[in-house]
Amino acid sequence: MTDPAGWTAAHLADRVTDLRQVARADEYTLADGGRRIRLSAARGFDVEILPDRGFDLGAVAYDGVPLGFCTPAIRTPAVPDGSDEQFARRFGAGLLTTCGLDSYGLPTQDAGQHLPQHGRAADLSAHEVAVRTEWVDGAYRLTASGRMRQWRLVGEDLDWRRTVSIDLGGDTLVITDAVTNQGRTRWPHMMLYHLNLGFPMLDGTSTIEVSRPGPPEEPTPRDETARGGLGTWSRFPEPLPGEPEQVFRHDLPTDRPGEVTVTTPSIGRALTVQVDPAQLPYVFQWRSARAGLYALGIEPGNVPTMDGRAVARAAGVLPYLEPGERADYRVGVRITPAG
After folding, report:
1. How far apart are CA 141 and CA 314, in angstroms?
2. From the UniProt record, which GO molecular function terms apply (predicted)?
3. Bridging pattern class, strands 65-66 and 282-290
4. Domain around 165
């Protein structure tokens, strides 16, 4: 039996002395610095986790096929430099860069506070880091967890706990988050999952589909450049020299699970991002088809604007966490055959 989905505990007990032969969870430090966790399952997910960068996901592959988009900054420490270029210079991408916890979108001034582009979540370093392996309901599960805290003197105190898990023989990577306001006053809470796809999961055969009833609906373009791409938002081109980026917003229906599927026939794979629309009702689509910067962002979020917290506040769409209140999130990344 070569399909890991059929590898039960009894089946493996006769064939494997140490389960690390087929699935392993490792913690290590790079020679030039930086903590890493790796969850790896035979013929399934191979996941790099970055505890020093918001417990985000670096390079991720499935059955040997790379899924994400990575930049040189993924190897550098996430030390804030205080400038509005901070995100552009330190965006390592990987399969996931988390944006939040109290702002995302453009850098802005709000309530007397300077907010960098996409917030500070990806700058946070995890503590109480743990990895474990266990049988759960017949599946051998690999799990990594960490805890982060966004705190400022006479400001926010946001506790963030994240768990990342995969199953041996499974087709879904699961990220669960809990963000709690530990402060004494209510505080803004904006959360966005900047999932980044790249070659070979992404190429000129790739199509994008958003789950909704009836025929496909046009998304909301961010600007005039994106408006010019409305006719082709659901198809991804081959790399184009100098192509400008385009950003669209999809509003998820609340009567069904939220899913965005990228299908790439050339490799025979489809990747589906799964969310609960009650938690993350909007999905931004970042399309960067420029040669040398070839990426697709699928970005579920809880606020319908990328123009920053001040704009969200002025529009009356800024969410808050009351003291002691917790917000929970689940994001799944599922790999299936194309078809």
Report:
1. 44
2. carbohydrate binding; catalytic activity
3. unpaired
4. 4-337
- Residue holding tokens 């009351």? 322
Q: Which residue has the tokens 């959360």?
A: 191
- pLDDT tens for 104-149 read 999 999 999 999 999 999 999 999 999 999 999 999 999 999 999 9
Provide the pairing of β-strand 220-221 with 246-251: antiparallel
Tell me how many domains the chain contains: 1
> Which of 260-283 are b and which e, b meaning 16 or more Cβ less than 10 Å from the residue's Cβ?
bbbbbeebebbbbbbbbbebbbbb
Question: Cα separation of 50 and 59, whole Å?
Answer: 10
Contact 190, 302 (CB under 8 A): yes
- Other C-beta atoms closer than 10 Å to the C-beta of 259 total 18
CA-to-CA distance for 249 and 134, rounded, in angstroms? 39
Distance CA 98, CA 70 (A): 14
Tens of pLDDT, residue by residue over 237-266, are 999 999 999 999 999 998 889 999 999 999
Q: What is the CATH number of the domain that holds 41?
A: 2.70.98.10
